[in-house]
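FW: tagging you since you asked about this chain on Friday. Here's the raw sequence from the shared folder, copied in full. Didn't touch anything.
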Amino acid sequence: MDCPRTNTPLNEVSIGDTKVYFSSTGGVFFDNRQIFHFSDPNLKTAQVLVAHLQTLPTECIDLTKRINCPKCPDIVMMRRFFTPLKVVELDECPNCAAIWLDNGELEKIHENHLTPKERELLRLDMANNHGFIQVKIPKRRYSVDAEKPESKASSSLEKLAQLAYLSLLNG
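HL: got it, structure written out here
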């Protein structure tokens, strides 16, 4: 299989008992549903893969260009968001359900990972707001100086985002 961005051969690596394919530029290919073995930042396999991908050089690549599936070369991959927060847009094959993540997207998935309690609060907030969410993300996510919301009447989602931010600072 070849990298859909650079057309160079993908490298195969086994992490645990799962084979994944990565490009020399840090992109990674997951076969059908394999991404769920790596999407939780608390999993050892996820930590190992992220550590390996961070050692690879980054290149300036046009991420807006539509790509074909490495497994099904005649099929153009769909773009979709991985989480309800709509932070990471990934490429998914409509034929084989494989996922392509560009360099840095797995790290973004880990940064925005929701616990089951956070997912339930998000689901309730979305149900109360007819499917719309409003998230005020600090300008600098990991800074102690990040701005705090001005109003005391903040939504449960804003409180959730604040708690997640504080846990990142303390963790």
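FW: Residues 156-170 form the longest helix (15 residues).
HL: agreed, and The helical segments are 44-54, 105-111, 116-128, 156-170.
FW: great, closing this out.
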